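Memo to structure team: turn this sequence into structure tokens by end of day. - J.P.
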Amino acid sequence: MKTEDAGHGMEPIGQLLRRLRTASGRTQEGLAADLSARRGYPLEQAAVSRWETHERLPDPVSRTLLAAEFGVPEQELCRAVALARRLRRLEKQTDQENDVNRRGFMAGAGIAVIQPSSLLASGRRIGADVPEQLSQRTARLRRLDDFVGGGDTYRMYVRELEGTTRLADEGVYSEPTGRALRGIIAEQAQLAGWAAYDAGHYSEARSHYMTALAASRAAQDSALEGNSLAFLAYLEWTVGGSAGVKFATAAYEALGRDAAPAVRALLADRLAWQHATSGNSREADYSLKAAEEAIHGVSDAAAPDWVYWVDHDEIAIMTGRCWAELHRPLRAIPALEDALSRYDDTRARDKALYLSWLASAYLDAGEVEHATAITSRVLDLSEGLSSVRPAARAHAMVKRLEPHHALAPVSALLERVKAYRVARVIQSR
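Reply from structure team:
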């Protein structure tokens, strides 16, 4: 689809900014430097690149700065952003239509992955190979969470869960195949619950996690049962419930002796977090050591796909987060900085979240300016994410920095946040 067809000759924001920047003889680095000077805090070249490629769209504060920098009406930039959003929706609609036309084949995978809906003929017998095909499909869907927020994936995950649940309810299959199908339902319910949680829909998240818990027990899978309980524990912490440690302890204790090292590490990791956020430093330290020992363990047990992301860096991140929560910056900072050095901006949500704990640790260490700079980076990375968590963490850090408003970097950050909020109010009218 041509741009002119959608916008009647208008340019989307990326194309407009690239044209204005090129006409002014500036590189992306040069524009980032000029905008940094104008707003009083750093803007990286990567932010300009994301605007020009539509990976992110300039927020209201950035649009005001860009309008002043290029001497163009701010309304022109607003229209260009609106056009870019419209193009995104059209592209997404086209992608969804292409997904239907692929008839159950995942793009680029080179492997036929069956869709639950293709097996829903009345009385259809479900073969023993179907759960494995559905597992492959679920694995591919799971990896979307590395790059996009729950607001983008939630409906997709729910549709997948509904299809598999209907398949299990209406299909005909052997007992082992039934247990395997219940395991897939547990995994998909965990995915849906996590996406709901990430988008701030906590009641929906709880409902999905309870579905996952029941399905994992029906599947007789103690690892999946433990993971369901660990998700419930994390939700409890978020909503201020009192059962977080109880759920996380039950999760860890649900594991059998044959649990894969990565599974054991993950659930020890989650237990450490519950203890840390409850102020139990000794118990948190013990659980962190258990997670570190487990991640280096060797076992014949194959790790399930749902722990594909659990590695040494994940344990280091959780270690840093726990010590940050316990206000032990000398322990938190090295762990976080080491692991974050291997995170790039494509994982914007997770990087923003983990940086927020690094900022908190630096503030505890008395490094106010550095904590402020990191918080600004969190705000940059949070821009446009369909996840409520980075913004909530950034807000918490801004509140902690307010008593230091007399410092120029803090004052600039507070002005940035204030201007953004005003712009959002105006935009919503």
